[in-house]
Amino acid sequence: xxxxxxxxxxxxxxxxxxxxxxxxxxxxxxxxxxxxxxxxxxxxxxxxxxxxxxxxxxxxxxxxxxxxxxxxxxxxxxxxxxxxxxxxxxxxxxxxxxxxxxxxxxxxxxxxxxxxxxxxxxxxxxxxxxxxxxxxxxxxxxxxxxxxxxxxxxxxxxxxxxxxxxxxxxxxxxxxxxxxxxxxxxxxxxxxxxxxxxxxxxxxxxxxxxxxxxxxxxxxxxxxxxxxxxxxxxxxxxxxxxxxxxxxxxxxxxxxxxxxxxxxxxxxxxxxxxxxxxxxxxxxxxxxxxxxxxxxxxxxxxxxxxxxxxxxxxxxxxxxxxxxxxxxxxxxxxxxxxxxx
Length: 341
Description:
4 helices; mainly beta; about 350 residues; Porin
C-alpha cells in the first residue's frame, strides 16, 4: 500500500484514511443544526424566503493534511399559495416571534408547495479533493392541521482528484499507483423525508446512494476504494422556558457501513429571534460549543468549535466551523427561521 510520509502528523491522518478506504465518507459538520438542508434535500423550500448559506470547516487544526471543507447551499419555495403566506403564520406586517408560545398556538401546516435548491460542497483531505454539486427538489404538504411532511431528492455529480505530487510511495515504481485515474467524475444521488410541526421535527435521509469505484489502492491485492451510502436519522423538539427563551434538544444518528454507527447529541438555547447558544457531543470524536446571531432580517452568522476527544487530540487543536446565512426575498422580514427553528 502506498503511504504518505511527508509529515509525521500526516501519517496518523493517512492511517485514518486507510481504515475507511473501502467506505469513502462524505464530510461531517457540526453546524448542520444551523443548516439541516446540508444533509436532507427534503428541506428545500421549507422557509418563506430564499435561504443562502456559505460555510467553512477546518477540521483537526494543526494536523498537516487534515480535512478542510467549504460549502454553499441555496434553496427556495415555489408555489403561489406558499409565497402569499398560506404556509406560514406570519401576517405581511412581519408577524410574531417564531420562538414564542403564541406562534405555537397559531401555527398552521403548510399549503402544498414545491421547493428547489442547490448544494456545492468542496472537501480536501491530504492529496484527495472532492467537489460535489447537487440540485435538489422537495414537495411539502400538510398531513394534519399542524403537521407537515416533505419528501426530497438530490441529484448531481462529484469530481474526485488525487494529487500524486503529495504522495510518497514505498515503492516508487508501483505500477498500480501510476495507472490510477486520478481525475474522476461520478454521478451522485440522495433522498430525504422531513416531518415538521411548530415544536418538533423528525427526518431521515440518504446520501451517496449510487456506489462508485474511486481510486485503486495497492497492498498485496489491488482493490477499489468504493463510495457507500450514508444514512442519517434525526429528530428534535422545542421546550418553552418562557415567552422569550426556548430550548431545542436534538439527536442525529449516522450509519455508514462498515464504520460503526455514531451519533450526535445537541442542545440549542434560543433568546427570542436574536441570539442562540448550543453544545454538542459526537460519540468517540468531540465535544463542541456553538453560537449564532441573527443580525437582522437579511443576514445571520453561526460558529462552532469542536474539542477533539479521539486519539487525534494529541496532534490537533480542535475544529473550527463558521456559517454565514443570507435571507433573500424575505417579504415578512423575519430574522430567524420559522420551520427549522
